[in-house]
Design goal:
- By secondary structure, the protein is mainly α.
- It has a domain of 488 residues.
- The chain is built from 30 helices and two strands.
- The radius of gyration is 26 Å and the shape is globular.
- The two termini are 30 Å apart.
């Protein structure tokens, strides 16, 4: 294991003393070759001018030239063009002036390769793995809930926010973790910020992880509650994933594409079969489950999935979900371009102006920015980018493609979710997303509630709700909170116009439910596993045996503790009379963004320690860090101190306590009142803990940063450089110099494969 370097203010990326083996071909493309490959030509200039003009036109159509409706294709063009420009230019600035990768230097995957945790992985496979791990419920749910504020604020935050904040965090955390042997964000905080800041970061990461996984699971529960079709189809993904794991390990090792195609076919059978099973008496009896039962099932599943070997369930589910996620989003984008649905939702609604929306309450600033978390900026990603992915990176320059590029793909998921949500009728949207306490859970109650909102052009009828439910093969769509059912309906609404007509709406709806469940269960699997690693590492400071990830009692104990934590919050959300997702999601968003502020604060301190040549580019990290700190601390203040019960947790707690003391039954039964009092107390307490811990970390990081700037640098905690003995291209498509180097390395790689095959026999 390489030892940390103790030099001050020096960037290892600039080290001239890294000398590679002269008997091998070059392990990196030279700077001159890179400059030649990226030289501007007239075709390149014309292409990028065209991309910029198309993107500019799309933004003008969305933000300025908008009438009563706006065409959905402009969302696709604005997003794709902005992503391309951000990746080509902004991420290159970060690479050149902040990270400064050096492919002559071996990554931890090469230095510590053990075939288990440290494995040099093909960049394309790793991109899929990383994307599958980071893309959970957030990019699906947040934009759907935020649609009540209108389409424009969410669109700007998702697209611009990811380029300037979310992708910056993911890329830099991944790079600096890789330079430190794959240490977690908590370990890096402890090393960079000292005992107080580091301890606060570790505690915050563990607690926030509980909230994140609980809300991910709650989305699945709300999507599958009383839906036998959905329960059967999603349940079938587990044996399919297990079969794929066995197939890939024992029957056909290495055949990733082959097993993914088989898995996709089996998934299609599971969806179609779900419709048939739901139509039978025995199917209704077995798979028509209430939400509490489903929650208990997911808790049990979470424990088992986190202790099983990675190859048996988590890895094959990654294969399944990556193909499904990217494939479905690209398919939806293509359908939008072809169908060109007109969006009638206002750019900014009355709820975006007054902050008293029925889906969630709170003003546009700061609550839009914490409701749409994962699609624009997500602290959860910092845990993945400093957890498994940095241990698998083959070459340093690949971190831009995987970290920055992976986050851009998740942002595109969020934009597609927003378009799907705003494409359906506004009346149906509010009927689906208002809590059961508001609608009574009935069609009649939903009609009365939505029509009482007094929205211009919105009038819902019982026939609209019952017909829509029948079209998608569900008994009811009223108060199907959580975002997932709304996204599924929006996807079905667009896709049935593209393929199949009304007769296929039920298929597309449950296809979307399956797609979302795959998204989310992957994150539940990975999140629980990462949380277990974090807890084992923390306990290991006092009981070293716990740091041994092969010690099964430690694995089981830590997994049980973390599952019990998020499982308790999940049950509170499922049984919350005010609609679990409506009250818990703001806490999820705030916690997630507080973790992002912590991650960016740690990166800021690391960059400042690298020396004066880096400090002038520190604003690239500091600006998103300050912005997310301001929005999350402000949102926390609202939730803790607001006197409005619909916004403030403690105000709502006081309202229900007063009703309980007065014997007032107007707010619900004694059980309902007790549940609200309990849940708001939990949420209010967690809000206080989270924001206090985040402030401690931000202050500690700011102090370290200022000291480093004044001193002209600080301690370099990167692992000592080791010369690399392998080569791989940096991006998805190799450049001409990279292709030439690949040809030189092919005989060596072929010989390695022959040796491995010989050892296997």
């Amino acid at each position: 294991m390489s030892a940390p370097s103790s030099r001050r203010g020096s960037a290892v990326a600039d080290d001239p003393e890294i000398v590679t083996d002269p008997s091998l071909p070059p392990v990196a493309v030279t700077d001159e070759q890179e400059r030649e490959a990226s030289r501007w030509t007239w075709p390149k200039i014309v292409l990028w001018v065209a991309i910029a003009l198309l993107g500019g036109l799309a933004w003008v159509m969305l933000a300025i030239v908008r009438g009563e409706t706006v065409n959905a294709i402009w969302f696709v063009f604005a997003a794709v063009c902005t992503y391309l420009i951000g990746y080509r230019f902004y991420s290159k600035v970060i690479e050149r002036y902040i990270t400064r990768p050096d492919d002559r230097r071996a990554t931890p995957a090469e230095v510590r390769s053990d075939g288990k945790d440290y494995v040099p992985t093909d960049r394309r496979v790793l991109y899929g793995h990383h994307f599958a791990a980071i893309a959970g419920a957030g990019p699906l749910v947040g934009p759907v809930l935020a649609a009540q504020m209108g389409y424009l604020p969410g669109t700007i935050w998702i697209i611009v926010g990811v380029v300037l904040a979310g992708a910056v965090q993911d890329y830099t955390v991944l790079f600096f973790s890789m330079r430190r042997g794959g240490r977690t964000i908590g370990q890096m905080a402890r090393q960079e910020l000292g005992r107080i800041g580091g301890t606060a970061a570790i505690i915050a990461s563990l607690l926030i992880m509980l909230i994140i996984v609980a809300i991910l699971a709650l989305v699945v529960v709300n999507a599958l509650g009383e839906s036998p079709w959905g329960v059967f189809s999603v349940a079938m993904t587990i044996p399919i994933a297990l079969f794929m794991g066995v197939y890939l390990r024992y029957l056909r090792p290495g055949k990733v594409t082959e097993v993914s195609l088989i898995g996709f076919v089996l998934l299609m059978f599971a969806i179609v079969g779900g419709g048939w099973v739901a139509g039978t008496e025995w199917g209704q009896a077995i798979f028509h489950l209430d939400r509490t039962t489903i929650a208990v099932g997911i808790i049990i599943y979470g424990f088992i999935a986190a202790v099983l070997p990675v190859w048996l369930l988590l890895a094959p589910r990654d294969y399944l979900s990556t193909f499904m996620k990217i494939g479905v989003i690209v398919m939806l984008a293509g359908a939008i371009v072809l169908v060109r649905p007109e969006i009638s939702v206002p750019a900014v609604t009355i709820f975006g102006e007054n902050g008293l929306g029925p889906v969630f309450a709170g003003p546009l600033f700061p609550f839009l920015f914490v409701t749409i978390a994962c699609g624009a900026l997500s602290g959860f990603h910092a845990l993945i980018a400093s957890g498994t992915t940095p241990k698998l990176i083959e070459k340093e320059k690949q971190t831009r493609f995987i970290g920055y590029g992976g986050m851009l793909m998740e942002s595109f998921v969020a934009i597609m979710a927003l378009v799907a949500a705003v494409s359906i009728d506004q009346g149906i949207y509010f009927a689906m997303n208002a809590s059961a306490a508001a609608t009574g859970g009935t069609v009649e109650g939903a009609v009365a509630f939505v029509n009482s909102l007094g929205l211009t052009g919105v009038h819902v009828t019982p026939e609209m709700l019952t017909t829509t439910a029948a079209n998608v093969g569900e008994e009811s769509i009223v108060s199907r909170t959580g975002g997932a059912p709304t996204l599924a309906l929006g996807l079905a609404h667009i896709m049935h116009q593209f393929l199949g007509g009304t007769a296929l709406m039920a298929f597309w709806y449950h296809f979307a439910i399956m797609f979302e469940a795959l998204f989310i269960l992957t994150a539940v699997d990975a999140g629980t596993r990462v949380a277990r690693f974090m807890l084992q590492d923390s306990i290991g400071a006092w009981v070293p045996k716990f740091r041994d990830v092969t010690w099964r009692p430690g694995v089981w104990i830590c997994t049980a503790i973390m599952v019990a934590g998020w499982g308790t919050i999940l049950i509170l959300g499922v049984t919350d009379p005010l609609g679990g997702i409506n009250t818990f999601f703001p806490l999820f968003g705030i916690a997630n963004q507080l973790l992002a502020a912590i991650a960016l604060a740690v990166v800021m301190a690391i960059v400042a320690k690298r020396g004066p040549s880096y400090v002038k580019w520190l604003w690239i990290i500091a600006v998103p860090m300050v912005f997310t700190a301001v929005i999350t601390i402000t949102a926390s203040a609202y939730k803790i101190f607001s006197p409005v019960p619909a916004i403030g947790y403690w105000a709502n707690n006081a309202k229900y306590r007063a009703a309980q003391a007065a014997g007032d039954g107007s707010l619900g039964t004694p059980e309902v009142v007790n549940a609200v009092i309990r849940n708001t107390a939990v949420q209010g307490t967690l809000s206080i803990i989270f924001v206090v811990l985040a402030i401690i970390v931000i202050i500690a990081a700011s102090v370290v940063t200022i000291k480093a700037i004044r001193a002209g640098g600080g301690e370099n905690t990167e692992d000592a450089p080791v010369p690399s003995r392998r080569y791989a291209p940096a991006g998805l498509i190799p450049t001409k110099p990279e292709r030439e180097l690949e040809k030189q390395w092919e005989p060596i790689l072929a010989e390695e494969r022959r040796e491995l095959a010989h050892r296997g026999h």
